[in-house]
Description:
heterodimer
Amino acid sequence: MKVSYYPGCSLEGSARDYQESVEGVCKRLGIELVELEDWNCCGATAAHSLKHRASIELPGRNLVLGENAGHDLVVPCPMCFNRLKTAEKALLKEPTGQYRYTIKGNVRIWDLADFMAREEVLELIASKVTNPLKGVKAVCYYGCMTSRPPKITDAKNCESPVSMDRIVERLGAEAIDWPYKTDCCGASHVVDRPDMVFKMVGKLYQRALEVGANCIVVSCQMCQANLDMYQDKIGEQMGRAVYLPIIYFTELVGLAMKERQVETWLSRHFVDPLKFFGDQGLLA
Amino acid sequence: MEKAQENPLKVDPGFSDLVQTSASLNVNACFQCRKCTNGCPVTFAMDIYPDQVIRLVLLGQKERVLKCCTIWVCSACETCTTRCPNEVDIAGTMDALKEMAVKEGIEIPQPKTYAFHKAFLDDIGKRGRMFEGKLMQSYLLNSGELFRKVADGSIKEEISLGWNMFKRGRLPLLPKGIKAKKEVKEILR
Lengths: 284, 189
């Protein structure tokens, strides 16, 4: 299975654990990721906040690269996914000449979790599970960008997505249903308004603990960072100790398949997942 | 009545049309059901609610909406846009208003938020990709946060966070650039 791959900027930096686990797991599953040649940043929140035209043209350039490559385009970062989809819809709408790129719309853009939650991939994953994740009680936290708005993302059930839940279940872990799957973590406000993010993330922890989760599974590196990097501080504000490892779904797949590098990926987190998985007897 | 004459509200009757020009935002379809505000996760940080922003746009209250905090604290989670029964793109309207506020030189009530977005775009303009290390440096400098953090000692937390990222292999020291830098710079002009 050969697909084009758009990693996005943060996977080259702070989300190295995500990048390594995405690439490691896909390789193991026989999904060949061909990185788009000379891709550029999608512009993220900054572009759509300040420069509408650039917010379409930055991802638009990548779509042109994707069409030249010709395969389906797989995107692990929900923000990038959302911006690429937004550009796709805008550029296909009507050729108004408003934007500098034109596309044909013949390349399918996939959120990685959705791509992997298709039955054929799930079966492939299940066939490679040698370390069933017994004792892992996860809430899957999707955040905003792979779901909303559905007119852009084409999400089937934007209020209650199930892709990661389906993957997690196949790994032998328990996926606990909860109502905060797609609630916002505050995203990049962590830089300029950390007070807002701490409050929003605190609500997520509270609910995750109430429903009996012992970890939170994510597919977004912005969510991962906000939930992982300040957990002590946010717990302090909540007046209770919180220990909830924030795991990328790809890391979980790697762990269940006994992927060699999984401990390296997990060692990059702030809230130590190795202790958690060790206690469950899931580490080699 | 007298008071109103003393301090008349400035009304810009074409404002709602103007707000629609950059994208199809559909603000004129709003019938004030407030579903947007009820589902918004950041109303606690807003000075006026999302439904009020839309209403004020329709009433031509340009100055009031361009100066509000709401458009800047919106986290662009798109819940409002998703749930609106009339397909008003509320989150998109917040963006259009931010862009307009900057263009018109309005004093921004959330200067750090603006500084971060600005630093982000400047950073992409340099190499075609965003590089977190540099982005944070220029944000801290341009927002004035560096001086504040040095002055009140909280810079220690920033340094410790950076060190912890570095230790975990998550803070590369050298950025990656792309070949088509010029093209990206053009886009951002």
